[in-house]
Amino acid sequence: MILTNTTVLGTGVLGSQIIFQTAYHGLPVVGYDITAQALEAANHRLDSLVQTYADFFDAGDRAKAQAARESIRLTTDLADAVKDAELVIEAVPESLDIKQATYEALAAVAPENTVFATNSSTLLPSAIAPHTGRPEKFLALHYANHVWQNNTGEVMGTELTGSEAYDAVVDFAERTGLVAIRVLKEQPGYLLNSLLVPFLQAASHLLVNGVADAPTIDKTWKLGTGAPKGPFEIYDIVGLNTAYNISSRGDETSQKFAAMLKSEYIEKGKLGAAAGEGFYKYN
């Protein structure tokens, strides 16, 4: 099984990167989102990725990246988006209810042989599988933010995932420039976020408990470890909506952090680096 025609559901920060990464490596890709406004924002994100990819891969030569950009098709019609899809990668908000409803709608219109892959960063695919209508062709393919540089592709199935679908997604990951990471059993957070989330959570607890402010926590981490970014800079890159969705499901202190994110940042449009401001301001 070779997966070529690809559809990505969700055109937010990471969804747009998945779309561009796929197109840049020569595969046809369609991006789907629920509103024209969302697609307008996606167009801006995709346009900005042209120079990012040109600089990273081609010493500033925009020809290949521009061709990739022009090959991408966007739509708000789900049936149209998946009519030719061999692989659908879902990158909708990190909410189990939203994901389950998305797959129920997707299963009704996707071709019978289409493989489904969730990009969920924390949810187990087995919690979604019953809503897909094809659990043997459903698994997780998790991308890291800044896909072009942090190019891991964590592949994790459920007990019902067929080996053919699993191997095909591993092959797809490798053909689109990722280092395929075979996760051998279900684990919340896979490998990357099993390491990252507790680190970010520790930083958020320090903040909401009044131990130190965000810049001080970041500075301490960077000076003490030599890391290029502190936890709140990472929060801004990940996006504060994602941070909110994860924290709101956590313990009491994590929920306090979620409430702070909502009132002091998200409701004020400070959604992270992609929006120009989160914990920090960006050009």
Question: Gist?
Answer:
This protein has helices at 13-24, 36-58, 63-71, 78-82, 96-109, 163-175, 192-208, 214-225, 231-238, 240-247, 252-264, and strands at 6-9, 29-32, 73-75, 87-90, 115-118, 138-143, 152-156, 179-183. The protein is α/β, with parallel strands linked by helices and 283 residues long. The chain starts with 5 loop residues before the first strand and ends in a 19-residue tail after the last helix.
Task: Describe it.
Residues 189-282 form the 3-hydroxyacyl-CoA dehydrogenase C-terminal domain. Keywords: Fatty acid metabolism, Lipid metabolism, NAD, Oxidoreductase. Its EC number is 1.1.1.157. Residues 6-186 form the 3-hydroxyacyl-CoA dehydrogenase NAD binding domain. GO terms for molecular function: 3-hydroxybutyryl-CoA dehydrogenase activity. The protein has 283 residues and is α/β, with parallel strands linked by helices. The protein folds into 2 domains: 6-183, NAD(P)-binding Rossmann-like Domain (Rossmann fold, 3-Layer(aba) Sandwich), CATH 3.40.50; 194-275, N-(1-d-carboxylethyl)-l-norvaline Dehydrogenase, domain 2 (Orthogonal Bundle). Helix content is 47%, strand content 12%. It has 11 helices and 8 strands. It has helices spanning 13-24, 36-58, 63-71, 78-82, 96-109, 163-175, 192-208, 214-225, 231-238, 240-247, 252-264; strands at 6-9, 29-32, 73-75, 87-90, 115-118, 138-143, 152-156, 179-183. The chain has an 8-stranded mixed β-sheet with strand order 3-2-1-4-5-6-7-8. Helix 5 links the parallel strand 4 and strand 5 (115-118). The longest helix is centred in the N-terminal third of the chain and has 23 residues, at 36-58. It is globular and about 55 Å long. The chain starts with 5 loop residues before the first strand and ends in a 19-residue tail after the last helix. The model has no long low-confidence stretch (mean pLDDT 96).
